[in-house]
Amino acid sequence: MAQNTGENVWGAWYMYFGMNRVSEKWSIHTEAQFRYYETTGNFNQILLRTGANYHLNPNAIATLGYAFIGTDGTFEEPPGAIDSEEHRIFQQFILKNKVGEFLFEHRYRLEQRFIDFGPRSETQHRARYRLQVTLPLTDIFFLNFYDEVFINLQDEIFGQNRLYGAVGLNVTENSSVQIGYLKNHFNAIDFDRFQIGIFYNPDLRGIFKKANPTPN
User: Fold this and answer.
1) 216 part of a folded domain
2) What is the maximum alpha-carbon separation in the chain?
């Protein structure tokens, strides 16, 4: 019998993203994602990512970071058995621009992936490009869309493509929530994913300035 991949079942990604500003030029990226084959369970993947962001200017950010990914690669029961662990180093560059009311963001990322499958391990390299467009509707509501392509730097070139659309809500000046849909396309399979994302970008410069006062 063919393995049940869960392709015809709606899954869910529950996500947190943070950009924690610590100085005029530096911020710390924090991120946690919990991915499920089904909307209310059947664990698929946990992703924890962090990085140091250097702000060249308000519209250009360079990042060096690390991620841990634990994956259960099977949809069928029993769920929750992590059958691969990945340690990932990444380099990233973001460019932003505005055209009319539309906010564009171009994200370029390189990844070095060290994957442990238990009986064997692999080192893989990958490039990613994401084009994101945000349209403010009011001071509170906005729309967000992106398309991201993954390119393998070994073996078969095409890795996957992610197409995303969401409605966003600005909760405070530095926090927002997005509720959306992701179509995750691979060469021979597609997954539909419901997404809830929480974004919190605190400005911690005052705290760090008090902790490191300038000498008189």
Assistant:
1) no
2) 75
- Specify the DSSP class assigned to residue 203: B
- Its domain, for residue 173, covers 11-211
Backbone angles phi, psi at 187, to 5 degrees: -60, -40
DSSP 8-state assignment for residue 118: S
Q: What is the pLDDT of residues 35-57, one digit of tens each?
A: 999 998 899 999 999 999 999 99
Phi, psi of 175 (to 5 degrees): -145, 150
Question: CA nearest 178: which of 168, 188, 186, 170?
Answer: 168
Residues of the chain with pLDDT under 70: 1-3, 77-81, 209-216
Neighbours of 155 (CB within 10 A): 7
Q: Tell how far CA 102 is from the center of its chain.
A: 21
Q: Which residues contact 191 (CB under 8 A, 6 or more apart)?
A: 6, 7, 11, 183, 184
Neighbours of 54 (CB within 10 A): 12
Answer yes or no: are the C-beta atoms of 97 and 107 closer than 8 Å.
no
Count of domains forming the chain? 1
| pLDDT (0 to 100) of residue 1 | 39
CB neighbours of residue 204 within 10 Å: 14
- What would the 3-class secondary structure string for 38-68 be? ECCEEEEEEEEEEEEEEEEECCEEEEEEEEE
Indicate yes or no: pTM above 0.70: yes
CB 49 within 8 A of CB 65: yes
Is residue 196 situated within a structural domain? Answer: yes
pLDDT at 140: 97
> Residue 23's domain is classified under what CATH number?
2.40.160.40
